Amino acid sequence: MLKDNAIWMGVGAEPENKPVSLLLNQANRHGLIAGASGTGKTVTLKVMAEGFSKAGVPVFMADVKGDITGMCAPGKDSEDMQERIARFGLEGFAYEGCPCRFWDMLGDQGIPARITISDMGPSLLSRLLELTEVQEGVLDIVFRIADDKNLLLIDLKDLRSMLNYVAESAKEYETTYGKVSSQSVGAILRKLISIEDEGGDVFFGEPALDLADWFACAPNGQGYVNVLNAAKLIQSPQIYAMFLLWMLSELFDTLPEAGDLEKPKFVFFFDEAHLLFNDMPGELLDKIVQVVKLIRSKGVGVYFITQSPSDIPDEVLAQLSNRVQHGLRAYTPAEQKAVRAAAQSFRENPAFKSEDAILELGTGEALVSFLNEDGQPEVVERAKILPPQCLMAAAPESDLKAALDAQADLMAKYGKAVDRESAFEQLSEEAEKDAEAERLAEERAALEKERAELEKLKAKEAAKAEREAERAAAKAEREAEKAAEREARAAEKQQEQLMKGIGKIAGQIFGTFGREATRQITRNLFGGRRR
User: Fold this and answer.
1) What angle do CA 63, 68, 73 make, to 5 degrees?
2) The pairing of beta strand 6-12 with beta strand 19-23
3) How confident is the model at residue 531 (pLDDT cuts 50, 70, 90)?
4) Rounded Cα gap, residues 304 and 271, in angstroms
5) CA distances from 263 to 46, 342, 374, 478 (A)
6) Cα–Cα distance for residue pair 157/93, rounded to 1 Å
7) With left for phi above 0 and alpha for psi between -120 and 50, is residue 86 left, alpha or beta?
8) Surface-to-core class of residue 14, CB atoms within 10 Å of its CB (0-12 exposed, 13-18 middle, 19+ buried)
9) What DSSP line would sit under 241-252, residue for residue?
10) What are phi and psi of 181, to 5 degrees?
11) pLDDT tens-digit readout, 288-300
12) For a Cys staple, 411 with which of 339, 352, 415, 463, CB 3.0–4.6 Å?
């Protein structure tokens, strides 16, 4: 409940019954809600988020178990609730829900929440894909080449196309960007398959989420509670963790400095916080520590919800000033050590021993220490947490549908995926042009080859024709010579026959002159005979 610029969270132990409240002007100093399963963390989360919403502060939270949806519906009256209301002295307590907007990274129930591959960046994406140092270096090169070539990386098919392109052009880029091995590219491509199977093909894309749409208040002035449906998403912890880390980094990079405000601009609740830090590389952890340290000055509060404070790195834990510690169980030496560490983080209360109290806390009880007006941690109080005015359980279908219908404007903006021209289309078009150019070159080469063969054939035919003409001419010449010889022989024979005939006639005429005289006359008449 909101009371005097503070969120009234609970009541201290008897007999003082001291109210325990989170001051709005100290709420951007971040916080922690911790405790074992079933100790009341979700109720504490709802009471705190409800208070921020009523103060006009937009809120983000992930719904891992499905019961956060109850924030949009009014609570239900019961004997137990009446008893608690009377015990806490909650005058004017009324059951009412908060204005909620429901988002879903997998697009099942709620406004689709998408981001682009470029928005994620190579560092977070390497973490998401669990890449080695060498593979991360290759991914850095791929992103750099995409930037230099003005190729947009929007979805997974864009990244896959870019990886294949860089692998095929590795020699070309090696001297400028460094060596890109086909083995590393192959390993990254295999990792993309698993991310795609976990819903990455839906999560990465456009329209990309504009976090400014979360910095909104309802018409009644209350801040919207932006609920991310993570019931299925939590089964893909890599994508869930990367999305939360991206949101934090994006806010840090885009929000202007705000200094100390009367109330935060925005508050994040990170449920299952241990998923953010499991096996986190040192350089990425340094980035998160830096963001958590500095984002306070931009008016953003960050609250981590987890089972044990030991789930969170000490560098981050040191930045969480507003703390609610529900009960822990300590059956092993490691768990006992975690309890001691949690107890030692509080400013000691002489009325009880924090380490013992953590083990004794019942459901709905917690050790609470918030910052005072001077920014100092208050003495830890053993308090009972107030009930929320909204529904403790999951929202009924009717209330959930009403909340979804009320966000039609955002559904119109984000509901339909857009696949505009990006690296995949650009590289495909370039590949088609290259293939077309190669095809034309091959056709030209084939045509040139065909032309050369034709010219060769023509030359061969011409040479053949020339040879045949020469042979025909030689044959004709030989035939002419033979014909001439035949004619000569025929003329000679005819002459001979003529001579014989003349001789015969002459012999008859000049028989008296004798044979020799006849021959002599014939020679004189026709000339000598050729031999």
Assistant:
1) 145
2) antiparallel
3) very low
4) 6
5) 18, 28, 15, 122
6) 53
7) alpha
8) exposed
9) HHHHHHHHHHHH
10) -90, 145
11) 888 888 888 999 9
12) 415
